[in-house]
């Protein structure tokens, strides 16, 4: 567990512009909708 956490924190630090946190405690439909919105925002920012 500790190694996974350390690796996650390292990757999050190195690729903070690519890794986004999604609240997966919500119902699946909301998680999908929120993720779709986040992806669209990122794509709009890059264009």
From TrEMBL:
Protein name: dTMP kinase
Keywords attached to this entry: Kinase, Transferase
Alphabetized InterPro entries for the sequence: P-loop_NTPase
GO MF annotation: an example: kinase activity
